[in-house]
Specification:
22 strands; alpha/beta; about 750 residues; globular; seven-stranded mixed beta sheet; binds magnesium ion; eight-stranded mixed beta sheet; binds cytidine-5'-diphosphate
């Protein structure tokens, strides 16, 4: 009370400045420049300057229509909601009035397509309804797949809370390298990839009474494969109920695929969203985001902001810049809580985005695509959409796979905008022009199956006994070349024989929930007697981009610290070195801090390592150490990743061996200044150029030793010296060429 009264009594000048600014810019078009001018005239520009030095001009051209609300369902305002108990909140969700009808429909039909606006309660409520209706009797479970790890974890936590149970007991989740379920689990959330793996041990999904394939519209590779498998199972398990749940208008397509399964539509409760576009394209969209956030914060009424960025790095950059600018503004602006959300964020931090915003403050969530449909954050009124996302892209001709930032589709843009209209009328600021929206964005996102390497799933399908992949029941088939290349790679790795059948090695490889190359490397550690080291390298590679920490203000120190870990032979050895030193400090947090290493990533690497050790032992490989034998370790890596070989070219760059593609060593690599003749890279990242990230030095002769199906001596002539490679002159038969 005191606070409010005080402010009322003495309306101090700073407060007034913002009031003025708000009035001036209330007419969107974000006429911030006008506002600034007006304030300048009044001699009040000083504080305002900091903020609106560079502003972005937006124009409003259209509006995303709200769908008709549910008539007899009163709107639940934000404030009411906070006071509601969890059970009341459950009842306030759009899906609630349809509970009985939905259960009835499930009863009557084996396969049901459920369509409903994001946030209507599909993911959190349907499994509970089914549980309450008795679908979990006789030890059977209700399963629900999620394309994203974070969503599986966070939704499971929410449902456990709603049911008043401890997470991991009745309600659990299962994601790669982490199983948080128990004997008692009856509602199980899992990533779609994990369900695929469950087919290996339980091909008829016997332990489930209902399986929900959620977020079907996302069309991830794993979800697409699940469609085919599950459709097949439904035929010989008439007691298994299947729900395909989707946020958007793909329901028709799903229904067609599942033999005309009925569609259950949950009417949305959506408010209109005004759409604003920039007048001109933005050169630096991260900066444009930061400016727009501040513009909204000082000129707009209450309501939280959701910003879509493409990944962790961008989020951290924006976070830093925003924190810095709000710090400079100090108490002149209201409190702005800046919260990141991305896949690698630890779960306690993830939970923060769901906490209610304190009175008087504003929440600003910097999210990846995950907030597009997988996670619903309440009270978002403003959405900022730069129009990009990170996507896998795959060149089936060269076999090169990379993560690239690409423009989103119109469907995505509209989903994003829709996030602003869930609790009240909202606004969406698109950091691109209306023209770009109309002419440059594709209608829909291409399903993942048509743009990624299929090695993994082909191996899995082969181990499920599905040999004829060409005739597999795909919702949308992958391109022929991609399928062919996956088969070719698996053949080169020795996972398939010349008939295309799974080999013993292939069967063992399929035991590992990792990329086939990684699986092969793990298995090769048996021959080279270095399983301890290879398991560590595999674990570290799986968190690799997040091991070293590089704060901008201490960049030099961080770089020095990183260089201290450099080990001869390449980045794989550097990662091994980091891990082993951490083990020697007894997993010290302090040590990580002092060495600019992300403790969280290390903990995750330790968890992954533990899981891998279990898997390695399951395929009966002994854990043995051979840490001084760099050749043995190098050969084991080569046995898995020989596909990713590049050689130094005469010009000092690198060329991939098979496709002669130009690639460069990533500047962060320990090999950056070394330029060895032959390299194997762990992955390619494309920024301005095609960079190899995590490289290891090899000898070309190793390639013939570990991949005789794949390399011929003539492929491996050394172009830098023109010296005779060691193997030249040997016959193909000697090289194991067949
Ligand atoms: O799946 P759908 O998009 O239809 O909705 P949902 O994820 O089941 O979300 C229903 C409600 O639960 C929303 O109001 C969410 O904000 C809330 N929720 C939450 O508070 N915490 C979570 N971890 C997940 C959902
Ligand atoms: Mg959902």
């Amino acid at each position: 009370y005191v606070e409010i009264d005080d402010r009322e009594k003495q309306p101090h000048s700073e407060q007034r400045i913002w009031e003025d600014a708000r009035m001036a810019t209330a007419q969107w078009n974000f006429g911030a420049r006008d506002a600034k001018q007006r304030l300048q005239e009044k001699g009040k520009v000083h504080d305002y300057d900091l903020l609106l030095d560079d502003t972005i001009d937006f124009v409003q051209t259209n509006q995303l229509a709200g769908t008709k609300g549910i008539e007899d369902q009163p709107e639940v305002s934000d404030i009411q909601k906070k006071k509601m108990s969890l059970q009341e909140t459950r009842k306030s969700l759009p899906i609630f009035p349809f509970r009985e009808d939905l259960l009835q429909a499930v009863e009557e039909h084996q396969i049901l397509i459920v369509e409903g606006e994001t946030g209507s309660g599909k993911t959190t409520q349907i499994p509970q309804y089914l549980y309450e209706a008795g679908y979990c009797k006789d030890g059977k479970k209700v399963g629900c797949t999620q394309p994203r790890r974070v969503a599986a974890m966070s939704v499971a936590a929410r449902v456990a809370q709603e049911m008043g149970k401890k997470l991991g007991n009745e309600v659990g989740y299962s994601i790669r390298f982490e199983d948080c379920t128990s004997e008692r689990t009856v509602i199980k959330y899992m990533t779609d990839g994990m369900l695929l793996r469950e087919f290996l041990s339980e091909p008829d999904l016997q332990s489930y009474s209902v399986m929900i394939i959620d977020e079907a519209h996302e069309r991830t590779l794993h979800t697409d494969i699940l469609f085919g498998l599950i459709k097949d199972i439904a035929r010989f398990r008439p007691d298994l109920k299947l729900l395909i749940s989707s946020a958007t208008l793909d329901a028709e397509k799903f229904s067609d695929f599942f033999d005309e399964a009925p569609i259950f539509r949950i009417p949305g409760r959506r408010f209109p969203v005004e759409i604003f576009y920039t007048k001109a394209p933005e050169a630096d969209y991260i900066d444009a985001c930061v400016v727009t956030i501040l513009q909204i914060h000082v000129t707009q009424d209450a309501g939280d902001i959701l910003v879509f960025l493409t990944g962790q790095e961008e989020i951290e950059t924006a976070l830093e810049s925003l924190t810095e600018r709000t710090r400079r503004l100090g108490t002149r602006i209201k409190e702005l809580l800046i919260l990141p959300i991305y896949a690698n964020l630890p779960s306690d931090m993830q939970a923060k985005i769901f906490e209610p915003t304190p009175p008087g403050a504003r929440k600003c969530i910097l999210a990846t695509n995950i907030a597009e449909t997988s996670l619903t954050i309440d009270n978002i009124i403003f959405v900022i959409d730069p129009g990009f996302c990170k996507q896998n892209s795959y060149n089936a001709r060269t076999g090169m796979e990379s993560l690239v930032v690409v423009p989103i589709s119109k469907a995505s843009a509209n989903q994003r905008a829709g996030r602003a209209g869930r609790v009240a009328a909202g606004k969406c600021f698109r950091l691109y022009t209306a023209w770009a929206y109309k002419h440059e964005l594709e209608e829909n996102t291409v399903p993942e199956i048509q743009r990624v390497n299929l090695g993994n799933v082909v191996l899995l399908l082969k181990s499920l006994g599905i040999n004829d992949l060409i005739h597999f029941d795909f919702l949308d088939p992958p391109p022929h070349e991609t399928l062919a290349l996956a088969l070719e790679q698996l053949y080169a790795l020795g996972a398939l024989n010349h008939m295309g059948e799974l080999t013993k090695l292939g069967r063992r490889m399929a035991e590992f929930p990792v990329d086939p190359m990684m699986a092969k490397m793990l298995l090769a550690s048996e021959k080279y007697k270095c399983s301890e080291e290879i398991v560590t390298i595999a674990a570290m590679l799986s968190v690799n981009s997040a091991v070293f920490y590089r704060p901008k203000d201490k960049a030099i120190h961080a770089d020095t610290a990183r260089k201290n870990f450099f080990s001869p032979g390449g980045d794989h050895f550097t990662l091994l070195n980091v891990y082993n030193q951490w083990v020697d400090t007894d997993f010290s947090t302090q040590w990580c801090f002092e060495n600019f290493i992300q403790h969280r990533s290390m903990r995750r690497a330790r968890d992954v390592r533990e899981q891998l050790v279990g898997l390695v032992e399951r395929v009966e490989i002994d854990m043995v150490s051979n840490k001084d034998d760099l050749v043995a370790i190098g050969k084991a890596v080569t046995a898995g990743f020989f596909y990713n070989t590049s050689r130094l070219s005469k010009t000092g760059g690198y060329k991939t061996v098979k496709h002669n593609q130009t690639v460069l060593i990533h500047p962060n690599s320990s090999m950056f200044e070394e330029l060895p003749r032959w390299l194997i890279y762990h992955e390619l990242v494309f920024t301005t150029k095609e960079y190899m990230r995590q490289v290891i030095q090899i000898e070309n002769s190793w390639l013939l030793e570990v991949a005789p199906h794949y390399y011929k001596a003539k492929d491996l002539e050394d172009t830098t010296t023109r010296k005779m490679p060691k193997n030249k002159g040997k016959s193909r038969a000697e090289l194991g060429d067949h």
